[in-house]
Structures are given as structure tokens and as C-alpha cells.
């Protein structure tokens, strides 16, 4: 485009200089009109360079974007915080149900499409004490069902280690 | 017997609170959560870019992070009197800077007018044309220096906005992901890429060359009466206006539709998650939901503060070039009006009017790019907020 404007400008200056140099007479308008016709061809010259058979595809750089990578340090920190929150509150729920000193381990990870996903929940009852009046097996089953319902897991993702 | 029963009941009532060992779960305050989250976000590259490129920060505050923290704490206030006084002072500085050139153009126009009024049979028509051409070239040389400076300034301001957006994208997308706006983050990525890469290519490859062509044709067209290039100049002016209109329209429609859809999806999916948490686990469900929310709230607060800070920085840094371009454009229109009675053929006056239009196209480019960044940051601030 810049080449085109340079050629148009140069041609215009040439016509100007020629119009100054040429003596007045009958021949001057004739020469100027011929130069003007040539000027038209200079102006429309880019049209001949257009490739009308070109396939315009959308594989231009503008449309092929690279994914912006989020800050991994920050996501790792949030992952750790969320995991700790889940573990803390699962432990509190177990205490509410009458199981003290249980250790909860929540396997939380970040998927490729950036969803926080719970893989499994492990409840270690080895050092725990059950102070509820209910049967041991009933409490475990009740807690398991609550975790399944609320964390959208299946029974295979919740382990009770006794 | 009755008395013993009453005493027993009273004892039970008094002992009861101590027998249920309910741990008090201390809710973290939002400030602690926000401070912890900010410590884990890397602002180093952004601060370095701001320091190296002399980006103006509002209220004389040093550092992007300080601005964000003030916004989060609610200690921020935009001082409108400072902005207004800055606008006035920048205007006056620019008027003082352009005054010598404007006076030179007036002097040249007066000279041309004087020479034409003293035209006699001795000075032929050709000599008169040569004098006109020389005067136009003189004005062109006087003005070209400033025009080149304006092109460079426009290019720099657009590059700065693009680079700033590029550096902020990972931070903002991380916050959007944590806020539950995964879909929004995915939707806005191509928009950000278009703005950071595509818009620069369009501006450099198409818009700037067209403005250069229009400016050059303005000069060339006035040099000689035989050369009439107004038609081509009008074609390129119309083309430029259409390009601006198409880019803005497509961008606005695209980002509005995408942004609304993404935010609705994120909002519904997160509300489902919160509902199941609060209704499934009795008593503790509320606490889990609150714990779930507090990280979310912290990230939303930081995201919105960063977005607002980016908007304020955009405003501050775009103000100065727009004012200087506007002052130049208006000065040339004023000069065109002042010199039109002086010169009989009005070539210099017409050229000044056309040059002010070329400069207004540069203003339009800056405003178009700034508006697109403004809309993008606005949508980012508004997205993932509906999840609450």
C-alpha cells in the first residue's frame, strides 16, 4: 500500500513539474491530458494484482489463538486452600455425627478445563472414637451417603479405613 | 419429689452445653483471605512493565498492587478536580507547543495573499502556481514533523494498551477460574487474543496506511491545480469510516453475546453446586458453603479491583494523547478559518481543514482501541459476579 501511495505521489509531482516547465501553447493541454490518463492507470494499478481465485480461509493468525496460561502458583494455592477447607469441614461433620479424631484426606485436583474435581475422600478411623448411640455401621453408611450426595461422588470414591 | 425433679432438670440444662463438644469453626475474615490470595499472585511482570514504560498511575500512587489494595479496602477515591486540572494544563501546554507552527502557517498564508494581490502582467500564471506550490510544500514541511510525532504517539499508546492487556490476562483468567467462571475464562480468551494480537495487525496493516494515504493525498492534491485527487481521498475516508464501524460493531456484538451466555452458564452450574452443599449436609452444610464461598468472594473481589484499576489506568494514559491530538485538530480548523479571508484561492485553508480531519482519524483509532479494551474489562468485571 505504501508503494502505491509513493508511486501516486511521485507521478503527481512529475505532472506538476511538467506543467510548470512546459511552455503555454496548444500542445500543453494535450500532453497534460495524456499524463492524466496515465495517472489513472497508476492509481488503479493495484486492482490488477488482486488474486481473485484465492481461497480465503480463516486460518489467519487473528483467528488462531493461543490459550492464555493462568498463573499456576495461584491455582495451586487455591487448590490447597479448598482441599484444607473440605477436609476441615468433613472432619467437623464427622464430629457432629459422633466420630472424634478421624483424619480426612480429600483428593482434590484441577482438571484440564479448570474445574475443581474431588477424586476421592479417605476417612481414617484408626485413631477415632465413636461416641454416638447409633450402631457403628449405621453412622458410617449415613456419612457415606451424605458425602456421595453433596460432593457428587460415587460409593467407590469414598473410603473408610478402620 | 417435685423439687428434686426440678433441680435435676436444672442441672441437666446447665451441664448440657458443656457435654456437646461442638468445635467453633472460626470463619476466616475476608481481608485475611484476600491478603493471602494476593500474596500468591505474581504481579512482578506487570509492575516491571508499568515502571519501564512510564505509565501514569492515578493519585500519584506507586505501583499497580497498591491501587488494587486501596480499592479492595475501599480507601480509593477518584479525584475529579485533579483530573479536570490535568486536562486544562495539558491543553494549555499543547497550545503553547503548537503556537509557533500555527503562526508560521499564518505568515505563509499572508505572504501568498500579498504576492497574489501584487500580481501583474509581469508575473505570469505559471509563476503564481509555482509560488503556491512552494508555499504548500513549506506548510507541509512545517506540519510533517508534528504529524510523524502523532503517528508514533498513537502507535505507542495502542502498543502499551495491548501489552498491558497481554500481561494482565493470566492474572485475570486465574481469578476467573477460581471464581467459578471457567466458561467465561474460556470465552474471553479469543477476545483477549484478538485485542492483543489481531487489533495491532489490523491497525498497522490497514488503518495506519490508509490514514497516511489520506494525509499524503491532502498535500499532493493542493500542490497543483492540474492534480485533482479529492475523489480518491474521499474514497479512503469512507473506507476508513466503514472499517471502524465494522470492527466496533462485530466486537461489541460478539463479546456481548458470548459474555452473557458464559456468565449464565457459570452462574447456574455454581448455584447447583451451592444448593446441593447447603441442603445435603445439615448444619455443617452452611459452613461448608461459607467456606466454599469465602475463597470465591476473595477472588471475585481481587478480580473486580484489578479490572477497575486497569480501567482507571487506561483512562489516565489515553487522556493526554487524545487532548494533544484534539487541540491540534481544533487549532488547524481555527487556522483554516483565520486564513481563508487572507488568501484568495484558499488552498492553504483547505489543506489545514483536511489535515485536521486526518488527525481526527488518529483520535478515532485511539478511541476505538480504548473502547474495546474498556468493554472487555467491563465484561470481565461483570462476569462470574452473577455466581454469587
Keywords:
A: 162 residues, alpha+beta, GMP Synthetase, Chain A, domain 3, three-stranded mixed β-sheet, two-stranded antiparallel sheet, 5 helices, 5 strands, rod-shaped, B: 388 residues, 10 helices, 84% helix
Question: How would you sum up this structure in a few lines?
Answer:
The complex is a heterodimer of chains A (162) and B (388). Chain A is α+β, with helices and mostly antiparallel strands and 162 residues long.
Could you characterize the architecture of this molecule?
The complex is a heterodimer of chains A (162) and B (388). Chain A has 162 residues and is an alpha+beta fold. Chain A folds into 2 domains: 2-48; 72-161, GMP Synthetase, Chain A, domain 3. Chain A has 5 helices and 5 strands. In chain A, a hairpin with a 5-residue loop joins strand 2 and strand 3. Chain A is rod-shaped. Classes of the chains: A alpha+beta (162), B mainly alpha (388). At the A-B interface, helix 1, helix 2, helix 4 and helix 5 of A face helix 6, helix 7, helix 8 and helix 9 of B.
